Structures are given as structure tokens and as C-alpha cells.
Input
Amino acid sequence: MSAALAEVDHVVGYAPYVHRVPQREGLTRHASGNTVEVDRAAFALDLARRGERVAVVSGGDAGVFGMAAAVFEAAEDPAYAGVAVRVLPGVSAVQAVAARAGAPVGADFAVMSLSDRLKPWEVVEKRLRAVAEADLVLAIYNPASRSRREQIAMACKVLLEHKSAETVVVVGRDVGRAEESLSVTTLGELDPPSIDMKCLLIVGASSTRVSPAGVWTPRFVR
Output
């Protein structure tokens, strides 16, 4: 990743992520807001079409609820047919939080975003039920924001229809940064008002357990 960033002339992305890329001679950083992903991607593609070397940055892994999909969406425009796109893997939040906690995603798991900005809540709820009924470990991205305070409580209610209140829940906040924190609770004891956009939740399966070594989910089913 560092090698790729060292080779580009432009870095494009959401402002907090762009500002993490060190400024150097010959590099122009283009920062933008949080709800203009496709516009941001098109801007980057326009630069690349003109022969500029461009990197679009995301937090975590660009391919997991990140900018990669937005770039490919914008690149469907025939105007960008000649622009090559390469996705570099990163460490997604689910991997970072899981590693801090132990091995909670050591067996089958699902990953979902609670944001209903790009899909209706009815779809989110349907998928939550399916994951809960399948007894999968569930990693929840975007659980809450300043304008979305009810979804996490609604999600807990749906999950509790199919999961025990004693189900293990890991809450990771700002993992990988100086302010990181990690807590382990249960689905019944989870406090929705304490959850914000900086959190990632891992809701365990019925087999997920807490031991002195950490939180883990067995690879086997009995």
C-alpha cells in the first residue's frame, strides 16, 4: 500500500482518510465529504483518463463497504473504458476487531451494514433475520450515526427473536487507532445508545464463547 501511494500524483478520498496520507512533494490531496462516493470516484477517473496517476483511499479494506465499489460503479460509464482500475487489499474493520478480541470469526460468518442510506430498512431487517436464523456470527458495520440512532436498537430486537440474550457481542471502537477500545458483552446487555459510527460489532453464534484467551468461535459444529 505504501509503495503504491509513493507512486501516485493524486490521492482522492473522504477527508479523514486523505489526511492520513503524508504530504510530499509532487502529491496533490483531494479531500471530500462523506456522501459523495460516486462523484469522488468519477473525479478520480477523470484525473486518470488525463494520464495522471491516482489513488482513491478508504479506511480498512477498500473492497469492504469502501470506495472500490463506487469506483467500479462510476467506471461503468463508457468514457472510462480505457482507465485501468486496480484494487489493493487492506485490513477490514471486522478483521481488526476480531484479532483484538481473539478468534470470533473462526467459523462461518456474515458481514452487514446497518446503514439504510443505499438500501431500505426492510432489506436490512430481512437479511438480519436470515443471518440470525442461520446461526452465523455477524459483523455489523455502520451501526449508528448522528442521524441514525434507532437502527441498532431495532437490529438487536430482530436478532433477539432468534438468538439468546446471552449471545456474545464484541464492540470495537476506533480499533487500530490511538483511541481504540474493545469491550465484550451480550446481546441482552448491549447498550444501543453507547454505539456510534466508530464502532464495529461482532455478534456471536450460539457456539461463540469467552475463555481466558479471548472470544472465539469453534470451527466445528456438534
